[in-house]
UniProtKB/TrEMBL annotation:
Superkingdom per UniProt: Bacteria
PANTHER family: GLUTAMYL-TRNA GLN AMIDOTRANSFERASE SUBUNIT B MITOCHONDRIAL AND PROKARYOTIC PET112-RELATED
Keywords: ATP-binding, Ligase, Nucleotide-binding, Protein biosynthesis
Enzyme class label: ligase
Protein name per the record: Aspartyl/glutamyl-tRNA(Asn/Gln) amidotransferase subunit B
Swiss-Prot/TrEMBL catalytic activity: L-glutamyl-tRNA(Gln) + L-glutamine + ATP + H2O = L-glutaminyl-tRNA(Gln) + L-glutamate + ADP + phosphate + H(+); L-aspartyl-tRNA(Asn) + L-glutamine + ATP + H2O = L-asparaginyl-tRNA(Asn) + L-glutamate + ADP + phosphate + 2 H(+)
Domain Asn/Gln amidotransferase: residue ranges: 329-476
InterPro entries associated with the record: Asn/Gln-tRNA_amidoTrfase_suB/E, Asn/Gln-tRNA_Trfase_suB/E_cat, Asn/Gln_amidotransferase, Asn/Gln_tRNA_amidoTrase-B-like, GatB, GatB_C_1, GatB_Yqey_C_2, Gln-tRNA_amidoTrfase_suB_CS
Complex and partners: Heterotrimer of A, B and C subunits.
Pfam family name, one: GatB_Yqey
Length: 477
């Protein structure tokens, strides 16, 4: 009988903070730009340059810590993590080891077994390294220091996750939380959210942990899920063959769907940490913490419950709408303007989500005015446009933020309620389908929908539905 195994997973999640300038200098943090143009002597590690802490970084870190139910070190320090690598211009990284800003917290996630708490061991501030660009054609590597010195928080979880599904739920929770707080856009494709996966396997029921590996180079949730599944199977196969799992750092290749060893896993002693001599300790008083606690925005779980309560939405609609702060704000403003929350929810969860998927965009990229969507909902409610026509108008609102009434008039999309025009079309349809008329008069009610469809077809979808039905009933008697 084959042994049963359990996967044990902890994460180190790096989130780039969306401050205007870097953590220890005044260089911009904007993504992109020509290589090595967002740099200065401080973030390129020039001799004699001195770091100055960006107060906003501390504030953003505190906001994240409060949202994750962390305790706060009101007296914390920065340390130097020494290692030699081309993208690290100082040959050390300024981080926090001994007194991180936040510790001992948790976030709750929804799993197949219900709600689960993932404990946060610590969260610390640090600077990002530069970026190596590998050119396979010239077999060379180039370094871009634009990212060097961009502020990060690193969130270190306890080994509380047991599956790829729990890991993705946890990462989604961190991503949504950071976006709601306004501290990061968490775009994995731009590297503003990155995760290293520490994973081990053990026999089911065992108390001690197995030997863990750390996987890097994970830049999407799908890649993380595949890496977890792949590394789990690799370790199980080693144990089944009586071999040992080596503690090491591995690089995941998503194209080949397998991992490769990079280096043996370092311990803290390998980095020769010591207190940074150029940065004084950070002292955080209760007044500062209290102010930030009062300023904390309504987070996703609170908003979801309120949407269900105030707008009578389903659990499903509330969950979809609150996955993005931008989408939640657009929905709520629209609903308040038109007083039609269910219809606003339908446009957002169905048509907006479809258009986002087709365009390959995220909900955070939607820029249209809620007033325009509200106006469209009311125009359809007043039957001044058909639902088919409204869908065409919504696409224009979504893409170009068009004013709906002006677009409707310019493209002749208003419904036709002129009884003389409709009567002529209805009489024409009745003459063309005598067999269907006979069936309807024999009591086959379903045929009525056929007649409505034929009228709409001839009117190119512009016939007023209510007037059309009323006239049809009269003509078919």
């Amino acid at each position: 009988m084959r042994k049963q195994y359990e996967t044990v997973i902890g994460l180190e999640v790096h989130i780039e903070l969306s401050t205007r300038t870097k953590i220890f200098c005044g260089c911009p943090t904007a993504f992109g730009g020509e290589p090595n143009t967002h740099t200065c002597p401080v973030c390129t590690g020039m001799p004699g340059s001195l770091p100055v802490l960006n107060r906003k970084v501390v504030e953003y870190a505190l906001k994240a810590g409060l949202a994750m139910n962390c305790k706060i070190h009101t007296f914390c320090k920065f340390d130097r993590k020494n290692y030699f690598y081309p993208d690290n211009p100082q040959n050390y990284q300024i981080s926090q080891l001994y007194l991180p800003i936040c510790y001992d917290g948790y976030v709750s996630v929804d799993t197949a077994q219900g709600e689960k708490r993932i404990r946060i061991h610590e969260m610390h501030m640090e600077e990002d390294a530069g970026k190596l660009v590998h050119d396979p054609w010239t077999d060379s590597s180039l370094v871009d220091y634009n990212r060097s010195g961009v502020p990060l928080i690193e969130i270190v979880s306890e080994p509380d996750m047991r599956s790829a599904q729990e890991v993705i739920a946890y990462l989604e929770q961190l991503r949504i939380m950071a976006q709601y707080l306004g501290i990061s856009d968490c775009r994995l494709e731009e590297g503003s959210m990155r995760a290293d996966v520490n994973l081990s396997v053990r026999e089911a029921g065992a108390e001690s942990y197995g030997t863990r590996t750390e996987m890097k180079n994970l830049n999407s949730f799908k890649a993380i899920a595949r890496a977890i599944e792949g590394e789990t199977m690799r370790q199980i196969e080693l144990l089944e063959e009586g071999k040992e799992v080596i503690q090491e750092t591995r690089r995941w290749d998503d194209n080949k769907e397998c991992s490769f060893p990079m280096r043996s896993k370092e311990d803290a002693k390998d980095y020769r940490y010591f207190p940074d001599p150029d940065l004084p300790p950070v002292v955080i008083d209760d007044t500062w913490i209290g102010r930030l606690r009062e300023e904390q925005p309504e987070l996703r779980e609170e908003k979801k419950k309120r949407f269900i309560r105030e707008f009578s939405l389903s659990e499903y609609d509330a969950r979809i709408l609150t996955e993005s702060r931008n989408m939640a704000d657009l929905f709520e403003e629209t609903a308040k303007i038109c007083s039609q929350p269910k219809k606003a929810a339908n446009w957002m969860t169905q048509d907006a989500m479809r258009l986002l998927k087709e365009a390959g965009k995220s909900p955070e990229e939607m820029k249209f005015s809620p007033g325009h969507l509200a106006a469209l909902i009311l125009l359809e409610e007043e039957q001044k446009i058909t639902h088919k026509g409204a869908k065409e108008v919504f696409e224009q609102i979504f893409d170009h933020d068009e004013e709906p009434l002006a677009y409707i008039e310019a493209h002749h999309l208003s419904t036709v309620a002129d009884t003389n025009v409709l009567e002529q079309v209805i009489e024409e349809v009745i003459r063309e389908h005598p067999d269907s008329v006979a069936q309807y008069r024999e009591g086959k009610e379903k045929v009525f929908g056929f007649f409505v469809g034929q009228v709409m077809k001839k009117m190119k979808g512009k016939a007023d539905p209510a007037v059309t039905r009323e006239l049809l009933r009269e003509k078919l008697r």
